[in-house]
Amino acid sequence: xxxxxxxxxxxxxxxxxxxxxxxxxxxxxxxxxxxxxxxxxxxxxxxxxxxxxxxxxxxxxxxxxxxxxxxxxxxxxxxxxxxxxxxxxxxxxxxxxxxxxxxxxxxxxxxxxxxxxxxxxxxxxxxxxxxx
Length: 132
Fold this sequence. Notes:
It is built from four helices and five strands. The chain has 132 residues and is of the alpha+beta class. The protein has one domain (2-127). Strands 2-3-1-4-5 form a five-stranded mixed β-sheet. Helix 4 (108-116) links the parallel strand 4 and strand 5. It starts with a strand and ends in a 5-residue tail after the last strand.
């Protein structure tokens, strides 16, 4: 299964201004520059996460993400012009030992949309809880 999280952050990123300008973007995990992280170190950036999909098939997850990016195009234009970092984290659940995960095919069209929105891609793999 697939989870997709959009991480948006920047050293000089005014999160409050962005949230006021684009209130329809449902944010989570808000963090501010200077706050202590879970290890007790000061955070270097301000930003937030947007949970796009949770526990979805790859096809459904990519379609929902494409729809979100289409609707939020103005917000991403704002972020791009303000040099804010955007990463799409694709979190894939890996099955039991010896089982291969399903491939994640990112089409040229999807990658073009990410490029247009100035979004980089990260891949994360997490072990399955099955059999635990």
